[in-house]
């Protein structure tokens, strides 16, 4: 079986430098052969690539926990078989640690939460820079630190995967 990262690389079908005008279903295609035992946590799953990935993984038999800060959009995923939802702000250490304490094992941690300021650095306010660094860098550290013990090889036969797809 191909490495999970190789299979997931097919998620991003569009490499436009800016917002893409193509409908999401023509940009994002995911064809995986995911074993039924895969337990997956996805961040930023309420819309866009995160939503498409959650639906595709669930369709292929993975047990998906879709997380996002946008609770109303996230609830739309609850109706799909194989998807559980959880409101999560990946910039909040206490929320992440609480969530991790509830997870027994994990095969894939798929971090999609990210933010890029539009414009030049001269247009970027310090608060926007701080938000970007907090979401793009610090949240990855917090998520990986909290969930890495759940991904360790000695916990189950397969090696766990951490995937970061961001701007």
TrEMBL record:
The keyword Chaperone does not apply. One of its GO terms (cellular component) is cytoplasm. Pathway: Amino-acid metabolism; Siderophore biosynthesis. Gene3D superfamilies: NAD(P)-binding Rossmann-like Domain. InterPro entries: DHB_DH (IPR003560), NAD(P)-bd_dom_sf (IPR036291), SDR_DHRS6-like (IPR051122), SDR_fam (IPR002347). GO terms for molecular function: 2,3-dihydro-2,3-dihydroxybenzoate dehydrogenase activity; 3-hydroxybutyrate dehydrogenase activity; 4-oxoproline reductase activity. Transmembrane segments: none annotated. The keyword NAD applies. It comes from the Eukaryota. Belongs to the short-chain dehydrogenases/reductases (SDR) family. This is Dehydrogenase/reductase SDR family member 6.
